[in-house]
Write a structure and sequence with these properties.
10-stranded mixed sheet, Rossmann-like_a/b/a_fold, single chain, about 40% helix, 10 strands, 11 helices, Rossmann fold, alpha/beta
Length: about 290
C-alpha cells in the first residue's frame, strides 16, 4: 500500500488585495476546513508600482519603503481578521508576510522558508485583462515555481471536490512527489480522478504504457479511471469533458510540451475560448 506523508499543512496565499485574490483565500479556507493548517498570506510589492505624488514628497526612500510595508501589513491583518470572523475555525492558523522583491523570487523564498505544500491564488490580479486566462503573476508562478499551484478563477466558489480531471499524454515520467498535491486533495474528499488522454492515434509506445502503469499504481488507493478522448482539438475536448462530467478541479503538470505549456502558447483569442470556471492545479514535473 502506498503511504503518503503530510497532507497539505502549510499553504501560501498570495494577495494583491484584489477581489480575485481574496476570493481565492476564501476558497482555500473552505477547501481545507477539516484540516489542521497554517496559512501564510503574502503580499509582494515593488516601490515603482506604488510610488504616488504623495509618496514622492517624502525625502527618504526608506520612509517610502516602511510606509508601503506598513500599509500592506495592515491590509493583510484586515483580511485575516475577516477570515477568522467568517469561518471561526480553530484548526487554522494565519500568518502575515510582506516582501519587497521580484514576485516569483518572493514566492519561491517563502515556499522554501515556510516549507509550503501548496500555493493557492487567483488566476488574475487587480490589473488582469478580461481576455486573458491567467494574469502575468499567476502564469509566472505556474511556470517557474517548484511548489504546486491551485489557481482559482474569478468568482469561483468552493462546491466540493467530488471529481478531478488530470490531463496526461503519458510522455512524462512522473515521481511520487510530482503528484502528491493531487493525491492529497483527492484523499481529503475521496474524489474520483479521471486521467484524460487526448489522442489522434490509438496506440501507446512502451514508454507511455509504463508511465500509464505508474499512474495506475500511484492512485491505486483512490478511485480513478483512464479516459481516452480521440479529438483533434485538445482544448475543446477537455473543455467539453469538464462541462459534461461536472469536473471540480483540472490538474496538469508544467512540463515542456504539456497541456499547460500549450495553453500558455496559444493566441489570445484561442486562450479566451478555453473558458472554464473551475480551479487549475498545476504541479511541477521533476523529470524536466
Amino acid at each position: 500500500m502506498l503511504k503518503i506523508e503530510r497532507i497539505l499543512k502549510s499553504i501560501l496565499l498570495p494577495t494583491d488585495f484584489s477581489n480575485n485574490s481574496i476570493n481565492a483565500i476564501n476558497y482555500a479556507v473552505e477547501l481545507l476546513k477539516d484540516e489542521v493548517c497554517e496559512f501564510y498570506v503574502i503580499n509582494i510589492q515593488k516601490a515603482s508600482s506604488f510610488v504616488s505624488d504623495d509618496l514622492m514628497t517624502m525625502t527618504s526612500s526608506a520612509t517610502i519603503y516602511h510606509t508601503l510595508i506598513d500599509i500592506a501589513k495592515k491590509s493583510i491583518k484586515n483580511i485575516i481578521d475577516d477570515v477568522k470572523e467568517t469561518y471561526n475555525n480553530n484548526l487554522h492558523q494565519f500568518y502575515s508576510i510582506v516582501d519587497y522583491d521580484n514576485f516569483v523570487d518572493g514566492i519561491n523564498q517563502a515556499c522554501e522558508s515556510r516549507n509550503i505544500d501548496l500555493i493557492i491564488m487567483g488566476t488574475k490580479g487587480a490589473s488582469g485583462a478580461e481576455k486573458v486566462l491567467f494574469g502575468s503573476n499567476t502564469a509566472r508562478v505556474m511556470q517557474r515555481c517548484n511548489t504546486p499551484v491551485l489557481a482559482i478563477p474569478d468568482g469561483c466558489k468552493f462546491k466540493g471536490v467530488d471529481k478531478i480531471a488530470f490531463t496526461s499524454n503519458y510522455l512524462i515520467k512522473y515521481s511520487n512527489k510530482d503528484l502528491k498535491s493531487l493525491y492529497d486533495i483527492s484523499s481529503l474528499y475521496k474524489s474520483s480522478i479521471d486521467i484524460i488522454h487526448v489522442t489522434n492515434n490509438g496506440d501507446l509506445t512502451s514508454s507511455q504504457e509504463n508511465n500509464r502503469a505508474f499512474l495506475d499504481a500511484y492512485f491505486s488507493n483512490l478511485k480513478h479511471e483512464f479516459i481516452d478522448l480521440e479529438k483533434a482539438d485538445i482544448f475543446k475536448a477537455i473543455q467539453d469533458y469538464i462541462k459534461e462530467k461536472n469536473i471540480k478541479i483540472l490538474a496538469m503538470t508544467s512540463r515542456h510540451h504539456s497541456f499547460l505549456e500549450r495553453l500558455f502558447t496559444r493566441h489570445l483569442v484561442e486562450a479566451f475560448a478555453f473558458n472554464i470556471d473551475i480551479p487549475f492545479l498545476v504541479m511541477e514535473n521533476s523529470n524536466q
